[in-house]
Design a protein that fits this description.
Elements: H1 2-7, H2 15-21, H3 25-46, H4 51-68, H5 87-96, E1 105-111, E2 122-129, E3 138-145, E4 148-152
Antiparallel strand pairs: 1-2, 2-3, 3-4
Amino acid sequence: MEEAERDFEEPVKSAVGEITERRHPILLAIVFIFALWLLVLPFLFFTEKSYFSEAVRMNDRVCEAKLSGETSLLRPFLSASSAQISDLELMEIVKKLPCPNRLHSKVTFQRLEKHFVDEPNTYELVIQPHAGEGKDFQRLFFVLENDTLKWMLK
């Protein structure tokens, strides 16, 4: 008798089969689309443009130019109002910048209000060392030109 009962046992179903068997196909499609959206969501943030990260990268390029003495690489990053200065003037400005270590500093980036500056899309990057790391802070101004952040010399 036991052998006959073994022949008629139902096959073991997987957990996915048990869940989907009792659900309506439209509900399964909605859940599947939502799951795909959750999978793609993190990749959407990788392509988002961040003016803060652009400003920090530009600050790093300015500090690299200070160390190397090569300011011609900074020309594409200058705003239209700042592009008229000569390489010597640009080098003098870059040499005066303290370039504190970003890893041991407080970094702030903010949009300036219209009553402080003439340009409506002006931003300020401030790198201020923590206590005991030094007292020189760096302040760079940026302006948004054609959806690109440009360094504005003041």
